[in-house]
Amino acid sequence: MAEIAERAPLAGKRLASERRRREVGTIASKLTDDSDTEGGDFSHSNLRLRYNTVRSYISAIQRLYEEQRSRRINPAPPPQGIPLNALKSRIIRVAYAQSRTEMDDRGEGTLKDAYTIAHIPQHTAAVWQERKAIACALRTQVDFLLGNHMLLRSSNRLPIELPDCFCLDLPNEGIQRASSSPAAKALVILMRQGKTNQHGRMEYGAALRHRDPNACLVSAVAFWLFWRWQVEGEPFPQFTTSENWYHTKLIRQSLSDPTSPLSPQTANVWTRKLYERCGIQTSKASHAPRIASSQNADLAGVPEASIRSAGR
Q: Are 123 and 141 spatial neighbours (Cβ–Cβ below 8 Å)?
């Protein structure tokens, strides 16, 4: 395990940044020395794996040991104890010094590594400026606002199906003009899957209509469904039997396959594209709405217990 901790990463932003720094240093040395020597060897890296990467290796080894132990083919003691804990502690201790040596972005993971409330209408404007892949832009807008308004992870948002969505009357909300006034409605999402819900536990997310239509999840969902069924020509769900519509995804993969969820890779590509257009600068992609919304709620004075409850 100690050998694994001393390995250099094979890919990633840190390795690319190190190579760029070496290239700049090589060019500068050439200009200074005025020689025709070749550049440095970029195949060797001075970087080391981070704590989370080493921890994933440890988890994999422990799972392998447990499987072998259950089959009675590994009589060795568990791969845990004081040496392993000491290794973890050492990696954590040197992480800060290592990040300074590698010139890591010190703003990453801080309060500045997110967007503000003012960026949400700008994100909507970027969506409506799309002229080619309109469906992809509207779909990404729904994905973004689900994460922002309900603090949902990507693993909660992408599997949502039509039967998981319903409206709930709120008689004490909205404009109270007369007894015949229609009650305000909340958009409610039922969730029985996700990173922290592996056994079908029933959880809810909810959102009201926003006073700013450019930041409204309800209107974003309405425009997205209107585009699917009235513009693109996706067949309208048949509600006669559950089999006809229970597997229809809210954030579908494509027009030809509305029952398959959007892949996380495609979601990240479009999320990054719209972030760039509206000026959102963050190291996160699909997880940024959950982080930024929690921070914005805290700055607005929302109690921490309420934020934790919404974030599950």
A: yes
The end-to-end CA distance of the chain, in Å, is 34
- Do 129 and 294 contact (CB within 8 A), yes or no? no
The string of pLDDT tens digits covering residues 238-286 is: 999 999 999 999 999 999 999 999 999 999 999 999 999 999 999 888 9
CA distances from 230 to 126, 129, 217, 224 (A): 22, 20, 19, 10
The phi, psi pair for 194, rounded to 5°, reads 150, 180
Q: Quick one: pLDDT band at residue 57, thresholds 50, 70, 90?
A: confident
Cα dihedral 35, 39, 41, 45 sign = positive
Residue 257 three-state SS: strand
Tell me which residue of 201, 169, 163 sits closest to 312, measured CA to CA. 201
Instruction: Give the strands of the sheet with 203-207, arranged side by side.
Output: 165-170, 184-191, 203-207
Report pLDDT digits (tens) over 72-127: 898 888 877 777 778 778 777 777 777 777 677 777 778 888 999 999 999 999 99
Contact criterion met (CB below 8 Å) for 15 and 45:
yes
Distance separating alpha carbons of residues 287 and 285, to the nearest angstrom = 5
Domains and CATH numbers, the chain: 2-101 (no CATH), 119-311 (1.10.443.20)
In the prediction, which pLDDT does 58 show?
82
**Amino acid at the residue 215:** A
The burial class, CB within 10 Å (0-12 / 13-18 / 19+), for 59 is: exposed
Could you tell me the two tokens for 110?
């801080």
pLDDT of residue 24: 65
This prediction's pTM? 0.76
User: Which residues lie closer than 8 Å to 149 by C-beta, 6 or more apart?
Assistant: 205, 207, 217, 293
